[in-house]
Specification:
By secondary structure, the chain is an alpha+beta fold. The protein is built from 2 helices and 6 strands. The longest helix is centred in the middle third of the chain and has 24 residues. The radius of gyration is 24 Å and the shape is elongated.
Length: 146
């Protein structure tokens, strides 16, 4: 299974079985002078700065890839609580940082259970094989943050 990513505190349709560690990835990037000058001119007339859009997309993917390598090294099935952060490192250079909690997960099967009678009496002589399915969203979730 490849490492799955979720910005939620859980992974839908999976139950977290083990919390491993916080994992992260980062990259520091800058565009070359030619594209930076063009972006400055574009800034005057308005419009999307495509050079910077591409830079950020490449940076996000590289940071995610580095985080996934660290999660795989821990034996993780998923990273939950995924977050991005940016900061300025130097003039014209920025860091993109991504982090989350590496976890092991197991698929949630459609669990069945017997529903107790609602009137409070013991109905042991009656047929209590009535079963209903529990929706995965009704199950308790593992909180990876504590």
């Amino acid at each position: 299974m490849t490492v799955q990513l979720s910005n939620l505190e859980h992974l839908p349709n999976y139950q977290i079985t083990e919390r491993l560690d916080v994992v992260y990835g980062s990259t520091v990037r800058s565009k070359h002078v030619g594209k930076d000058l063009f972006a400055g001119l574009k800034n005057i007339v308005g419009g999307e700065l495509t050079a910077y859009t591409e830079l950020l997309e490449e940076s996000r993917q590289e940071a995610i890839d580095r985080m996934i390598v660290k999660a795989e090294a821990l034996g993780a099935d998923a990273v939950v609580g995924l977050r991005f952060s940016t900061s300025s490192i130097a003039q014209g250079a920025s860091e993109l940082f991504v982090y989350g909690t590496a976890v092991k997960v197991a698929p949630i099967s459609q669990q069945q259970y017997q529903t107790p009678p609602s009137d409070g009496y013991n109905h042991s002589s009656q047929n209590t094989n009535t079963q209903t399915q529990v929706a995965p969203d009704d199950l308790p979730r593992f909180n990876p943050f504590g």
